[in-house]
Design brief:
Blueprint: H1 4-18, H2 47-53, H3 73-78, H4 81-94, H5 119-126, H6 130-133, H7 137-141, H8 150-162, E1 169-172, H9 188-193, E2 203-206, E3 211-213, E4 228-234, E5 238-243, E6 252-256
Antiparallel strand pairs: 1-2, 3-4, 4-5, 5-6
Length: 265
Amino acid sequence: MAHKHSLEALNRILKDIKNNDKLFGGTLLVLSGDFRQTLPVIPRSTYADEINACLKSSTLWRNVEIVQLKVNMRVQMLQDPSAETVSKQLLDIDDGKVTIAETGYIKLANDFCTIIDSQDALIEQIFPDVHTNYINLEWLAERAMLAAKNVDVDILNLKIQQLLPGDLVSYRSIDTVCDGTEAVNFPTEFLNSLDLPGMPPHNLQLKVGSPIILLRNLNPPRLRNGTRLVIKKIMKKVIEGTILNGKLRGENILIPRIPIIPTDH
């Protein structure tokens, strides 16, 4: 995911520091990654811009020796045949070994997944009897739903939370501009309509018992991006939660209200 300019800058810096004209100042550099996953993210760019930012488009690429890892250690440690099957199916898609339909879309195998007719049926399949089972943290920790678009995430979150007992509590973001002279150009209604990537929605609705996920590193490695928690208590400016995953599973923590200002707005 690193931009090629980052490595090119590192190359020049190491040459200067070590006073050596060899590549990276004669230092052996080990890189890890997979081009079948996420390429460098370039805001408001085209496909060509992303390819151009990739390491393969750099003059450094001709000096890279590729070493491949063949064993999926996560699957091997699980010792689950179904996980091995899914891993192989995903690699076949990445390697272009699956059939392409006339429409140009990938045609998945019939046994690739289970097709559900509606969102309600999906919720019942993943979270059966959630109104009673949500108090079982182990049961909650092994369940999650993914969606391609944020709008689908919001709809699913609201539907699942409505199945939990208790009332929804709304946490609204600060809707004033930093520069008071710009208030006329950015009315409150406009600020409330913004849904910025990597940030919670303007009106964040939560319930006791709702699973949540952190979007920022607050106190690594204890509280970092991706840590899953379940809400234990809701207060005006603080949320008390219980960690669901990792070595600190079961530990109670407090999340205060934190001002976050996007760098590109």
